[in-house]
Amino acid sequence: MSGRVMARSGPPEERPSRQINIVLRNSEPPVVSQSVPDSEARSSAKVMPQNSLFADLQKELDALVGLDHIKELMYEIFALLQIASMRSEAGLLSEAQVFHMVFKGNPGTGKTTVARLVAKFFQRMGVLSKGHLIEVERADLVGEYIGHTAQKTRDLVKKAMGGILFVDEAYSLARGGEKDFGKEAIDVLVKQMEDSKSQFILILAGYSDEMDFFLDTNPGLPSRFPIVMEFPDYTIDQLIQIAEGMAKERDYILMPQAIVKLKQHLLREKVEGEHVFSNARYVRNVIERSIRQQAVRILNQYSGGSPGKLELMTIRTEDLKFE
């Protein structure tokens, strides 16, 4: 099973390694489908109460801008798990599914956000026992001497048991060629996928073209990842929607003139920018910078008094500063 959405890609950029990010979720008991007699099944075929299991996740997915094909794919996976449960209860063959995934797309297109939702979804459906996400990159997996990489990688897989191991910029593991320790990390991951295929889910993420190259370096890799999600760049209108949403979450509003100014800047940045455009990540930085600039403006403007509530909420054109 695979789901594909077209995405723009670009050359990777080096960035300093970061600490391992572990996102723990409150443990929820897995939900087991109840068997339904044939007579009741026929009468309730159009309204399936099991769909309520998807309702909470759907609310969170619907809150994400765009990503329509990914939302459809998540429902496909939900439907597959539900029908597999029904088939098992009916005494039909129901093979265990493999859910290792590849996420392709430019920075800021929602890959990590969706990975967290996937972890929550699979824990809720009983596929994963814990539903936590461990986010790592090359520096977290690759060691400094022979044997060090294998141990580091196995330790991280062990931490990911019951949840998801999310490897960002996974293509960097194949950069150094045959003698690079990154290849050792790949070999360990492949072995762990086979030995513990139902105990954790591995998600490899990165730029589209770079991930294609990475998968081609090991003939056995593509077949081990039955689900491929491609995250497209956001359109300008979607980026504006994201910007307004980010402002609203912080109790700010963007003036119409500020929105026009931001839209014009985003158009130029996407076309003329020197680096790969980082989509929602770029917008977040702009909003956070504008909030700081608004604070300075208001403090200077109202040095002898206090501004009203609306003024404290309003982001004006002069607050938008672009580096």
Automatic annotation (TrEMBL):
Region span, Disordered: 1-42
Family annotation (InterPro entries): AAA+_ATPase, AAA_lid_6, ATPase_AAA_core, CbxX/CfxQ, CbxX/CfxQ_RuBisCO_ESX, P-loop_NTPase
Keyword field contains Translocase: no
Domain AAA+ ATPase: 97-235
Pfam family, one: AAA_lid_6
Keywords, ordered alphabetically: ATP-binding, Nucleotide-binding
The keyword ATP-binding is assigned to this record: yes
Similarity section: Belongs to the CbxX/CfxQ family.
Protein name (record): Stage V sporulation protein K
Natural source organism: Paenibacillus aceti
Gene: spoVK
